[in-house]
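Budget justification aside, the reviewers requested a transparent look at the raw inputs and outputs of the sequence design task funded under Objective 1. We therefore reproduce one unedited record. The lines immediately below are the structure tokens for a 404-residue chain.
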């Protein structure tokens, strides 16, 4: 039995970068994944500009570009008669977003970890954790690995929303909100290029160009419609597009659907406790929210980098590791809670009247439009979005309306 510095459970968008970064820091890392690559997974695919900047910083962006996923440097958002067109500000020089298929992206991330020296075992599930008192000191692998035990100073759960690591440590919820939407999507060819968003009360649709000329078309529905939508997902998606984005529906009729319809009604909204003695949770294992704002991949990258930065060279000093895990938990919450609440508002699919007034004001200015998209991407902090210029513009428009 080998004693590792770190065992990472899960090898996708949070686990693989965390393993890679910790291996680059000089630690001996084992990464286990219950599946095998390449393998697809439910995903909106979209990597916002801060996530692209992370890929560039890690040296993985060229491989992502080489998949042929197009650069997405223009966004069109349509709400009724209001249309915003622009792009997020750059993050560390990266102005474009990307949306590679997950069966292409995830192996790139895993390969980056292996190239950094990580020992990677696919088709290797974790059935239990090993404890010394209340401290996690290792994992027990599943039947495919003969129930072997592997030990480590730190076990990182990056094993998704239904995390085995979270369940075994009994990680409590520190924030939790009801599910708001269900989402269904498929892929079409023959659509106009571009990342496009459309919404009307009770409906939301997005298009995300990806590899090989395909475009992901996603429709969001109120959670209470889940049973009826699931029963006829394709027609529900097409009807949603017809109501919300008729111009897109015409394109889809002229194009071709490439795959079956995928979807879920299990879009939980929560923060779990981020860490404890000998363990930490990253990615969807520690924090999940409605996919309507497509933050999952970017947030997974952020948490991987944050955890590695907090640990630094202090893994084997118990006091420093304890302080590092505490810092990670606090900074994760501080960074991600504002966008969590913003996502919950979007997922209600019922924008308040003042939001419509805000969009009308933003649409009059290219700079404000880019600032708005920068808030959606995470480049502009939410609490810095409202500027004196915007307030003056809204007041001016309100006065015109009153005098009109």
């Amino acid at each position: 039995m080998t004693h590792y510095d770190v065992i990472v459970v899960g090898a996708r968008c949070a686990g693989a970068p965390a393993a890679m970064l910790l291996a680059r820091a000089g630690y001996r890392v084992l990464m286990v994944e219950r599946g095998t690559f390449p393998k697809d997974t439910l995903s909106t695919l979209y990597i916002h500009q801060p996530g692209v900047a992370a890929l560039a910083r890690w040296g993985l962006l060229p491989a992502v570009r080489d998949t042929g996923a197009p650069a997405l440097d223009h966004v069109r958002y349509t709400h009724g008669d209001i249309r915003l067109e622009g792009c997020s500000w750059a993050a560390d020089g990266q102005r474009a977003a990307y949306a590679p298929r997950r069966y292409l992206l995830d192996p790139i991330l895993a390969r980056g970890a292996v190239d950094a020296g990580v020992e990677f075992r696919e088709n290797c599930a974790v059935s239990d954790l090993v404890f010394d008192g209340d401290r996690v000191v290792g994992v027990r692998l599943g039947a495919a690995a003969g129930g072997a035990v592997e030990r480590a100073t730190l076990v990182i759960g990056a094993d998704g929303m239904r995390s085995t690591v979270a369940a075994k440590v009994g990680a409590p919820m520190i924030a939790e909100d009801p599910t708001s939407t269900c989402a269904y999507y498929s892929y079409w060819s023959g659509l106009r290029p571009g990342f496009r968003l459309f919404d009307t009360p009770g409906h939301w649709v997005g298009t995300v160009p990806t590899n090989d000329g395909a475009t992901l078309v996603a429709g969001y529905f109120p959670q209470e419609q889940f049973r009826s939508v699931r029963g006829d997902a394709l027609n529900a998606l097409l009807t949603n597009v017809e109501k919300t984005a008729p111009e897109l529906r015409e394109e889809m009729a002229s194009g071709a659907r490439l795959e079956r319809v995928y979807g879920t009604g299990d879009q939980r909204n929560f923060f779990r406790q981020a860490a404890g003695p000998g363990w930490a949770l990253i990615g969807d294992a520690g924090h999940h929210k409605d996919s309507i704002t497509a933050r999952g991949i970017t947030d997974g990258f952020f948490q991987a980098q944050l955890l590695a930065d907090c640990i630094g060279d202090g893994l084997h000093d118990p006091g420093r590791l304890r302080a590092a895990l505490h810092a990670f938990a606090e900074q994760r919450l501080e960074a991600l809670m504002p966008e969590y609440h913003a996502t919950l508002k979007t997922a209600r699919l019922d924008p308040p009247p003042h939001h419509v007034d805000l969009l009308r004001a933003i649409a009059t200015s290219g700079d404000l439009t880019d600032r708005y998209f920068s808030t959606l991407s995470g480049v502009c902090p939410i609490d810095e979005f409202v500027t004196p210029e915007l307030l003056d513009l809204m007041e001016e428009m309100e006065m015109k309306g009153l005098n009109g």
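The longest strand covers residues 149-157. The radius of gyration is 22 Å. Computational costs for records of this kind are itemized in the attached budget.
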